Amino acid sequence: MRRQFYIVLLIILSVFAGCSNDSGDPDYREELVIFGYLFVDEAVTPENAIFVGKTLPIDEYYEQSRSALSGAIVQLENEDASESFLLTEEDPQNRPGFYSNSDVVIESQTHYRLTVETADQSKSAFSQTFTPYLMEMIEEPSYIPKELIFDEDDELLPTDTVPDSLTMVFDDIPDYHRIVFRCSDPTEEQICLVDIYCLEKWQDAHYIYVLNDHDQPEDEEEYEGQGSEEPRHTMGYLRLENFDEENGDYVFNWYGGMFAFWGRYELGLYTIDDNYYNFLYKTNPEQNSGIEGGIGVFGSACRQVYYLKIKE
């Protein structure tokens, strides 16, 4: 869904060798693009595929099929176990450039190396990641099964498909809808990402905190924000040491303060590696997220995603 925004962002990027040429158009140098994450305790399925493509000139119309690189040699190596796996295109006709291997399940606290070589062997790139800790969920909020949120085509269902018994009362979140998790042998410096996204259409969104009778966004631009995606989409990062602790477990019960609207949400809690963090927060992220010989990001995370509905 919205994650495709990052893929589009990367593909349309061009790397400039100079300021301009005689025609006034920017100089263009084709670069390899790698975009993907490994998720701890999950397989590298087509849904978790690594995208391999090339940059396109910034003055050309973007088409993913033109950017995608088919036939590339994509190897994923578990460096700690000295095991190497070939990633292949599951559906090169309809999804060119997406490489996966459903037999590979990602382990926590493990070094992985990704190597990519084009079919004609003219270009190659590599990246490395050290996977974060596996989160063990001790307490979970009142969440909604995905099939009550989206239909088979991944389209949002009407809000009345969610039974009232699965709806969370906003003021009850801190006491009755806590998220409590455990990390085995954690470091307090482990980076965590909280990612909250309102699923409602802008016409159906109503502010939780109303100012001067302004209880709804006036248009999609107000809902999506200008560049930041807020207030619809809110992200924040913190280290494990910033969570409250209870009997050695980590307590996350203040996420209600990150909600701007009533209605349905996707809430993601992630432990992430440095490459993932750099892509989200560094300047020129496509050049600072671990890819050698190209641009993009190759990172890793452990994730727990919940679908929620908030009411007064």
Verbal overview:
- The protein has 312 residues and is mostly beta strands.
- It has 2 domains: 4-130, Immunoglobulin-like (Sandwich), CATH 2.60.40; 135-272 and 302-311, no CATH class.
- Helices cover 9% and strands 36% of the residues.
- It has helices spanning 4-11, 64-67, 173-176, 220-224, 274-281, and strands spanning 32-39, 43-44, 50-54, 73-78, 83-89, 98-105, 111-117, 124-130, 135-139, 168-169, 179-183, 191-198, 233-239, 244-246, 249-252, 263-272, 294-311.
- The strands form 2 sheets. Strands 1, 2, 3, 4, 5, 6, 7, 8, 10, 12, 13, 16 and 17 form a 13-stranded mixed sheet that branches. Strands 9-11-15-14 form a 4-stranded antiparallel sheet, with no helix packed on it.
- A hairpin with an 8-residue loop joins strand 5 and strand 6 (98-105).
- The protein is globular.
- The model is unreliable at 1-21 (pLDDT under 50).
Quick structural summary:
With 312 residues, the chain is mainly β.
Shape: globular
Mean of residue pLDDT values = 88
H/E order of the elements? Answer: HEEEHEEEEEEEHEEHEEEEHE
Indicate how many domains the architecture comprises.
2
Ranges with pLDDT <50 over ≥5 residues?
A: 1-21
User: What is the rounded Rg?
Assistant: 21 Å
Distance linking N and C termini: 28 Å
Largest sheet: 13 strands, mixed
SS strand fraction: 35-45%
Main structural class: mainly beta
What is the overall number of helices?
A: 5
Can you give keywords for this protein?
312 residues; Immunoglobulin-like; 2 domains; four-stranded antiparallel sheet; globular; disordered N terminus
